[in-house]
Amino acid sequence: MNAGFERAFLLHRRAISDSQWLVDFVVENRGLMRMIARLSGKQAIKHKAQLQPFQALLIRYQGNGELKYLQHFELDTALPALRGDKLYCGFYMNELAARIIPINEPLEQIFSLYFQHLQELAGAKDLGASLRCYELQLLESLGYGVNFDSDYEGDAIDAKGQYDYYPEQGWVRQAQPVQGYGFSGAHIHAFARYDFCEPQVQRAAKHFCRYILKPLLGNKPLKSRELFKSR
């Protein structure tokens, strides 16, 4: 690696003038960083074409405040291109990360987690299972991990039981299970193993992940989710 450069992936970019972008990067050993990128001169068209999501980059920046200034970037190792539904899933991964990862907090594992799941997405056959793993592991890395082994009283999750989940408590077993409500113990065990092969488990995991992500995302809808629905 060139001296002074750090590995990064672009998550989001937004034009703030004809020659400047506001860009969010996930940076190795750093976490999420926001920068201003100046793209002008003879190389502007080339640089705009290169500064794309899902492209491994080497970046150099400066600035002591929360907002940094991108000084220079280079293309790093090429990755398999995302196409079709995988591309939409990649947009979701990026938007979710940009929305819930705090800026400039030293979250060293975030880059490795993102890089790992981006590579896995390129070769994934079950995209839903891939996204559920990403969501749960991202939450874990941010300190919002869920204990899938025991309920709020410390008792082991019973595969035959039915449970509700409360963020401030954890899993609470239903005294009288209600059909269609809560999560089965068997499904919770599957969540713990990141085993989303069975359609019923995957549907339950999707519902659960949306539930626990909602407080972090707020009421603003995810653009990538809407784009996927309208594709």
Automatic annotation (TrEMBL):
Pfam families: RecO_C, RecO_N. Residues 6-75 form the DNA replication/recombination mediator RecO N-terminal domain. Keywords: DNA damage, DNA recombination, DNA repair. It comes from the Bacteria. The keyword Isomerase does not apply. The keyword Lyase does not apply. InterPro entries: ARFGAP/RecO, DNA_rep/recomb_RecO_N, NA-bd_OB-fold, RecO, RecO_C. Belongs to the RecO family. Involved in DNA repair and RecF pathway recombination. This is DNA repair protein RecO. The gene is recO.
